Structure formats: structure tokens, C-alpha cells
Fold this protein.
Amino acid sequence: GAIVMHVKVSDPAIKALRLRRMRSLVVTLFLSQGVPMIRAGDEFCHSQQGNNNAWCQDNKINWLDWELAAKNKDFLRFFKKCIQLRHSHPTFRRPDFFQPRQQKNCSDAPAEINWQSTDPCREDWSSTCHHLGFLIKGTQLNEADNSFLVLLNGEQDSNLDFILPAIPGNEAEQAWYQIIDTSATPPLDFLEPDQTISHLPGAAIQVKAMGVMVFRSVSATQQPT
């Protein structure tokens, strides 16, 4: 297996970018379908110094340092919040995978998931595209749930503006509530219910480079929980 060396740095900007990318990977993992595969220590940044094949290392590279839980308490909080989000919403725990889309229009009701680039209903699967958005419709489940929108920007240096799509059901009283922004400084990376920010469909949302944002559909008259 490959070994990637973890270089210690003192530059705050590099440290912040590393944490942003780590949070983005955690979100991508926990909000994907299927069983999340994690290793003990991932929840508090036990990196094994970048060695992803450390099974034979009987030393500090492989030993689990529990002091990291206190040192990286903000990341641990974020990790636990992502687990709680997945556990609370069947949208992320489907019993089967999404059915192939048959409809011609991405806004058609039967779709279980819609993909987009920066604009709704416009997909870009080219090799030069490093961003993606997807909307999972909770209304399509046997156990009704909220719908969720996930926006990912894989560009290394460029922030991108995404246009928020229409909310499934086309209910005028609904809004998108921002709950996660992996580029934000903790604890604003994962907002508490009384901190959530509402956005209407059609609004432009900037996702920072190497960042992920997550939105939940909630009635504009109902405070999300």
C-alpha cells in the first residue's frame, strides 16, 4: 500500500485548510449511502502521520493517543454531529440504492436524487469538473423525511457560487436551512438548531474551495430541530 508522509506545519492557513478538507471528507462519508467505514481515532484526528498502511508499526504512529480527543475537541464535536445527523434521518440510510432516473426533467416528482453542477438541473460529469451538488428527496421514502442538499467544491483555489434548486413538493412556504459549512470556524462548521440560516430556492450560495455545505428543507414557519 501507498504511504503518504504527514508533514508538520506551523502556518495557520495550512492547518485550517487541512481541517477543512478533513471535515469535508467526514461529511462526504457519513452522508453517503451504505455503511460508513471509519478507523478508531479518525474522530479526533489520529492521522498515523499520514501512513495509511501502519498495521506493522508497533510505535507512536499506530498507537491510539486518547489525549487527541481533548486537543481536537472541535473536530470530535463535528464528527459526532455528523453521526447524529445520519442516525436521525433515514434519507442517509436507505435500504436500497437509488433507482435509475427515467424522467426527462430533473424536477419531475419520481426522482429520488437530483444531480447538479453549479446550476440546478445542469449536470457536468466531465473530467475537468471538480464540483458537484446533489439533492436527496426525503419525500420519496416510505418513512417521510426532510430533503437534503449537499454542495461540494473540490477546486483547490477557487470559491464557487451554487444556485439553490427548487425544494421537492414545490411548497412555497419551504426554505433551505444551512446546517453544515466545512469552511467555517468551529462551532459554526455545524450549526445548532437555533443558529441555522434560511435561504430561498434560487439564491446564490458561495462554497469555499475544498469545502462542503449541507442544507435541509424545512417549512419557513417551522424552526428546524
Summary: The two ends are 43 Å apart (CA to CA). The chain has a mean pLDDT of 88.
